[in-house]
Amino acid sequence: MRKLLLWCLLLPLSGYSQQRLHLTLLGGFSNYQGDLQTKYFTLNQANLAVGAGLQYDITPHIAARIGFHYGSLEADDKQNTGQLRARNLNFHTKLMEGSLLLQYTLFDLSDRRISPYVFAGAAIYHFDPYTYDTLGNKIFLKPLSTEGQGLPQYPNRKEYMLTQFAIPFGGGVKFRVSENATLGFEVGIRKLFTDYLDDLSTRYVDPLILASQRGLKAVEMSYRGGEVKGGNPNYPALNTIRGGEKAKDWYYITGITLSIGLGGKGGGDSYSGWNGRRSQIGCPRVRQ
């Protein structure tokens, strides 16, 4: 009798857990805002991004998400104007991110077909900025210390880490297309704690010191105005502003999402395990 009662207690919980787990997919674009891309949100110079993860529904409104995103970021002064264009710097980087998020959905999708939602959490991301020289050679920028990072002559300019912590947050709208799936549109912004996502932050250093410590290629990649037609080939004076050091960089991932319920009928944000919609499998009543 005890085993029968235990089975009756665990069976509904087992059904609910099957209906609360979802596979999530994202296809869209990634972009950044910083010293080479001054617009806060734009499709200009955006790149494709993809993502996948799992979502566990704690309640019909609150869910925990774990996910992985892959994309790329880039920006070029040739897309800027005025003095920024004359600087002629650019960067590219592959972007890999793992995140853990808490999501709040305004409406219960058991009762409605559409609902807005918001999310926030923590993320670890990896980047490695690079560019191409005039011969088309791929040049990674961090080892060059283009602003004196890590050089003894500039003790206050520390080397930046290529794997860092970020705070992701954002929101979207999702639409239930079946009992087992939802489609949505999501905008996710990442607050960073570095200004070197684009290898650009502060002021120019002494080119002689930079050349002696990191080589002539470092000097060549730290200022490229001479490559522009009619540009100034002379290296800027010491401490001339190169980037805006007061503001950190950002990046964002935006796209179409698909959520598919795992483990049986009633997934995909349908929440059929709540609101009294229990499994039809029952247990015999025990007479006293």
Automatic annotation (TrEMBL):
InterPro entries with a match to the protein in the record: DUF6089, OMP/PagP_B-barrel
Top-rank taxon, per record: Bacteria
Pfam families according to UniProt: DUF6089
Protein name: Outer membrane protein with beta-barrel domain
Span of domain DUF6089: 10-199
